[in-house]
Design a protein that fits this description.
Length: 456
């Protein structure tokens, strides 16, 4: 059986009070429309048309990588009109088209598969995904005949008193026999409370033609639409819970799953322990047996096995095996930290590589540098990488001992097995095996204080 899908994403989303199109708002780090596209693809529907309108350039830009086609809806005249805009996509196709909305990201892959088999096995011309809810306000109501068969969908604003009491709602997700859909789309009117062309009217039209319509109730947790920021945060909460349960099932310990924020694409190895307040973003990969103590943000980074991190920010970087980071470290993009390294408190590393077993324990800035292995940075070391006009490189060999409060004026090179005296300002290359001292000698002026009469 041939399947394709249409995703409606042309609406503005006025209730979001946003300058960005609604469907580009993110849930757990991914745009809602992309979550829908990805789920539909996982359910093995490859051919997807996205109806765009409001903010179409933006929506296109953010969905491009997903290999979908687009139809353009010039004016937002309603969901029925939106599907009508996709007729050239449907033209010459036979089989089933599934329709989704870009603002309902919680639908699951298995449910889509279930809908398709329910639709095909039941011989329906249309199948609606519905939900039974306590508070149906705002949603279209599923009106059933005494026999239990669906007769129509009535939008909230068009409901009679009696219809308002119906608590089975339209999820806005359906599948249709393509021919039956395209024929009835021409027949819908906009003589309703909102003056819109409702896709939902197709149901009554098909019934009028004696065609079979099915409805499949699914949990509201999957059908919830996002029309406001409050619903966006509710969707985020549901998705977050799903993500966290997946990781726990895979062998990750989450000390407080309600307060751990892991985006959709993040991977975590088994026996890793994540304390509350961690925000793991983008395509971050955390290895096995790591401990993420509270309150770090890690974005697009690779954390290898046995790493310990606490209260730090790590962006677009790699942290090698058995390294410890933090508390209060800042690892900025394009940094590669080796194995068994110690990056301590108030250390900032930017666009630098740090070799294995090097220790940078406190209060240090390392920028645009290549640091070898086995080095020790004293407290308060600064790589002076910026001369006021451009950034310069610093090279530090293996087993260098950098004394406290050293300035390394870049570009500069420090070779292997060197010592730098505390308080030095290094401007010239330090040869292998050397001790560099670059500071004024101390002089003591005997009895200076008493001579000045400053103390008895
Ligand atoms: C719609 C359904 C309602 C259902 C609810 C579920 C209709 C008439 N109503 O109502 O029965 O209970 O979804 O969430 O279908 N869109 C366009 N072009 C338009 C209008 C809308 O592309 O001209 C898109 C929007 O971007 C959105 C989706 O269609 O992604 C749904 O539109 P929305 O205005 O949110 O419809 P609801 O009022 O939620
Ligand atoms: Mg909606």
């Amino acid at each position: 059986m041939y399947n394709c899908a249409i995703i409606l994403a042309a609406g503005e989303g006025k209730r979001m009070k946003s300058s960005n199109p609604k469907v580009l708002h993110k849930v757990c780090g991914r745009e809602m429309v992309n979550i829908v596209i990805d789920t539909v693809k996982k359910a093995q529907i490859e051919n997807i048309d996205v109806v765009i309108g409001k903010g179409s350039d933006e929506v296109k830009k953010h969905t491009e990588s997903r290999n979908v086609s687009y139809s353009f809806q010039e004016k937002q005249l309603g969901t029925g009109n939106a599907v009508l805009c996709s007729v050239s996509f449907l033209k010459d196709k036979k089989g089933t088209v599934a329709v989704f909305t870009g603002d309902a990201p919680l639908i699951k892959e298995d449910t889509i598969k279930k809908m398709l088999s329910f639709h095909n096995e039941g011989g329906y011309k249309a199948t609606i995904l519905t939900s039974l809810v306590k508070d149906p306000s705002g949603y279209g109501r599923i009106i059933r005949e005494k026999s239990g068969e669906v007769s129509k969908i009535v939008e909230h604003k068009d409901c009679s008193e009696e219809e308002l009491r119906v608590n089975e709602i339209n999820s806005g997700m359906y599948c249709f026999d393509i021919e039956s859909l395209t024929e009835s789309l021409d027949k819908i009117h906009n003589d309703n409370a909102q003056g819109e062309y409702y896709l939902t009217d197709v149901i009554e039209i098909l019934k009028g033609q004696g065609k079979k319509v099915g409805a499949l109730p699914i949990p509201f947790e999957e059908t919830m639409g996002v029309n406001s920021r409050v619903q966006l945060s509710e969707a985020e909460r549901i998705m977050r819970k799903r993500i966290n349960i997946k990781h726990m099932k895979n062998g990750v310990t989450l000390i407080d799953a309600d307060n751990t924020y892991i985006e959709l694409d993040v991977k975590i190895g088994k026996d890793t322990i994540v304390y509350p307040g961690n925000v793991l973003q983008g395509n971050t990969v955390v290895g096995e047996n790591c401990t993420l103590y509270p309150n770090s943000r890690i974005q697009n980074s690779v954390i290898q096995n046995n790493v310990t991190i606490q209260s730090s920010v790590i962006l677009d970087s790699t942290i090698g095996e058995s390294t410890t980071v933090g508390p209060f470290a800042y690892i900025r993009p394009e940094s590669t930290i080796g194995k068994s390294v110690r990056i301590g408190d108030f250390v900032e590393v930017k666009k630098s590589t740090i070799g294995d077993k090097t220790k940078v324990s406190h209060l240090t800035y390392i920028g645009d540098a290549e640091v070898g292995s086995g080095c020790n940075f004293g407290c308060g070391t600064v790589v002076v990488n910026y001369d006021g006009r451009k950034k310069n490189k610093t090279l530090i060999g293996n087993n260098s001992f950098i004394g406290c409060n050293t300035n390394l004026i870049s570009p500069v090179k420090v070779n292997d097995d060197t010592y730098i005296a505390a308080g030095s300002t290094i401007t010239d290359e330090v040869p292998e095996g050397a001790l560099a001292v670059a500071r004024a000698r101390q002089i003591n002026k005997e009895n200076w204080v008493y001579k000045k009469g400053l103390k008895k």
